[in-house]
Design a protein that fits this description.
The protein is mostly helical and 357 residues long. It has a single domain, classed as Farnesyl Diphosphate Synthase. Strands 1-2 form a two-stranded antiparallel ribbon. α3 runs antiparallel to α16, α4 runs antiparallel to α8 and α15 packs antiparallel against α16. The longest helix is centred in the middle third of the chain and has 30 residues.
Length: 357
């Protein structure tokens, strides 16, 4: 975690202990269950630990408590839930890779092919990965409850409420993302729709709710809750817009996903909405025809990248990212929060926005 290497190490160690215990508990399922357990554990390797970091600093911003055991467990649970969301997201998007490794459904599919098992390898991969995601959701609930087991009842209730809000928002956001690629929208509504998807799918889930979960566990007062809410949402929006930029222009060596992957998946992001506003009708038709084609070759991807950049859309998204970042910074000015935590939150915000992966 930015500004707290001990905390991120503690989260990683807590995850390792928790997963080892869950795997051991499932020993009676026998060797046939080993793939789902091993691949579930593998999803928790790597990653930025962003959600855990915001959860931890949301807690630290409102309390001077020295015992970090409960917040470390709760923060770690968010990483388990995030792993579940990524597994399901990769199935929905038919992605081949995640963090430079085969996506979970592809790993199952490869095992099926290597073993020359019976049935359809792709169907086995998808079905098994769905169950990995479900198992990870259950694990995240278990770990979260461990984290708040000894918290005062009012804080535990508040944390559960924020956790429930997070799970609901990201599920609705995932559907909004699918619908935005499928259900036509009037030209003047496309940008608002893209920003709505960004809010539900990422801004609330990745930053705002983790902050508020940590704050709830720490016993935040109403004014502290409001300051963190006002900071978290614009940071989350800037984070997702940066993700949108990387999904089109990112270096695959850094992102772990093919360059232009969002173009092949047909993501209707703010970047695309801005481009469509500026492109002449003939070029816009070409963009619409190619967007979402999973077989786009590298030349077609480069052509779409150039089209989007030349339209001014990239510059407009960068301006919007900067605007959200300024809004977030203003929310912390004079906020009734721990000064060291405010500094760490500002560092986290910069790391979330100014990144290449």
């Amino acid at each position: 975690m930015q500004g707290s290497p001990d905390a991120i190490q503690a989260v990683s160690q807590r995850l390792e202990r928790f997963v080892a215990a869950r795997v051991a508990e499932a020993a009676d399922a026998g060797p046939l269950a080993r793939p789902i357990l091993e691949l579930s554990a593998a999803t928790l390797q790597g990653g930025k630990r962003l959600r855990a970091a915001f959860c931890y600093w949301g807690w630290r911003a409102v309390t001077d408590a020295s015992d970090t055991a409960e917040i470390v467990a709760a923060a770690a649970s968010l990483e388990v839930f995030h792993a579940a969301a990524l597994v399901h997201d990769d199935i929905i998007d038919n992605s081949d890779t995640r963090r430079g490794r085969p996506a979970t459904h592809r790993a199952f599919e490869a095992a099926h092919l290597a073993g020359r098992w019976t049935g359809d390898a792709a169907a086995y991969g998808r079905s098994s990965a769905i169950l990995v995601g479900d198992l990870l959701v259950a694990w995240s609930d278990d770990l979260f409850e461990e984290g708040i087991a000894d918290a005062p009842a009012d804080r535990a209730r508040a944390a559960r409420r924020q956790y429930a809000d997070m799970r609901r928002d990201v599920t609705v956001g995932q559907y909004l993302d699918i619908a935005a690629e499928t259900v036509p929208a009037p030209e003047d509504e496309q940008l608002d729709r893209a920003l709505l998807v960004a809010s539900f799918k990422s801004a609330r889930y990745s930053v705002q709710q983790p902050l508020l979960i940590g704050a709830a566990i720490g016993g935040a007062r109403a004014e502290q809750h409001e300051a963190l809410r006002a900071f978290g949402h614009p940071v989350g929006m800037a984070f997702q817009l940066r993700d949108d930029v990387l999904g089109v222009f990112g270096d695959s060596a850094a992102t772990g996903k093919p360059s232009g992957d969002d173009l092949r998946e047909g993501k209707r992001t703010a970047l695309i909405a801005f481009a469509r506003q500026e492109l002449p009708a003939s070029v816009r038709r070409t963009l619409d025809e190619l967007l979402g084609d999973p077989d786009l070759d590298d030349g077609q991807v480069r052509m779409l990248q150039d089209t989007i950049r030349d339209s001014g859309a990239l510059d407009r998204v960068e301006e919007l990212i900067a605007s959200y970042a300024r809004e977030a910074d203003r929310a912390l000015s004079g906020a009734p929060l721990d000064n060291a935590a405010v500094g760490a939150l500002r560092d986290l915000a910069r790391a979330a926005v100014d990144r290449v992966a």
